[in-house]
Amino acid sequence: MLAYEEEVSGYDIKKWADWSLRHYYWSPSFSQVYSELKRVEQHGYATSWMADGEGGRNRRVYKITDAGRRAVRIWALDSPVDPPMLKHGVILRTAFGHLSTPEQLKAMLTEHVARMDELQHRVAVDAAAAEAEPAWAYARIAMRWAERYYASERELALELMDEIDTAEQVFRSGASVGESFPKPRPGHWREVEQQVQAGEHDD
């Protein structure tokens, strides 16, 4: 938010993150915002002062410095982009579906679909509101991407729900006589891993 050349408080930055960044990256806590602002100021990337706020209450506001502009420009142009890392609690729970039941998994996915619907609606509203300011053009298309992401996540969850019964049938078909549920052959994963690696070398 400082990169937009605006004089803002830590509270302003937190509200901005909750309105935009949280849809596709992160929503920091107030303590994280203020500790980062302190660090940025110590590096000379921002300066701060006390200013009058609403209701006569003073607040500390921050503004980017020339050094801060150079630093953020270098980050935007030259810093490597970290690849996205998938860390999906719903999929992790599905992967260990043998510890659950098809009914419980479907209920979990139903809740996930409802949550995606809510998030998609929220970001659609925020993206539409961002049209009011030309300076937010890139933030707006990032939010539009998040809107499409939530829609895709919803469809993937519905597809996964349809696959649960088939997975349960395959899972149960592997049970030996006397077993309550099938257990993989000890060490089989090593054999499969070696086969995969051999196939990659052949390619």
Give structural notes:
By secondary structure, the protein is mainly alpha-helical. It folds into two domains: 2-78, Arc Repressor Mutant, subunit A; 89-180. It has helices spanning 10-19, 30-42, 66-78, 89-95, 102-129, 137-173, 188-202, and strands at 8-9, 46-52, 58-64. It has a three-stranded antiparallel sheet with strand order 1-3-2. The longest helix is centred in the last third of the chain and has 37 residues, at 137-173. The chain is elongated. It comes from Gordonia insulae. Pfam families: PadR (PF03551). Residues 175-203 are annotated as: Disordered.
Key features?
Arc Repressor Mutant, subunit A; 3 strands; 3-stranded antiparallel sheet; 2 domains; mainly alpha; 203 residues; single chain; Transcription regulator PadR N-terminal domain-containing protein; elongated
